[in-house]
């Protein structure tokens, strides 16, 4: 079976700036690809 080199299954990814618009899109993509997103950010 061919392995998907872009798979994020069971990978933990830390996203800095995750409370912004772009960070939110990154987090959604990570979760849809099977990853676990840790979100860091500040709202002032």
UniProtKB/TrEMBL annotation:
Question: So which domain of life are we looking at?
Answer: Bacteria
Give the record's keywords alphabetically: Membrane, Oxidoreductase, Transmembrane, Transmembrane helix
- Organism name: Flavobacterium gawalongense
Q: Which InterPro entries does the entry mention?
A: NAD(P)-bd_dom_sf
Descriptive protein name: D-mannonate oxidoreductase
Q: Read off the SUPFAM superfamilies from this record.
A: NAD(P)-binding Rossmann-fold domains
- Transmembrane regions: 12-42
Its Enzyme Commission number(s) read 1.1.1.131
Q: Name one GO molecular function term.
A: mannuronate reductase activity
């Amino acid at each position: 079976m061919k392995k998907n080199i872009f798979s994020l299954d069971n990978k933990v990814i830390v996203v800095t700036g995750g409370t912004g618009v772009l960070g939110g899109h990154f987090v959604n993509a990570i979760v849809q690809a099977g990853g676990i997103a840790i979100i860091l950010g500040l709202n002032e």
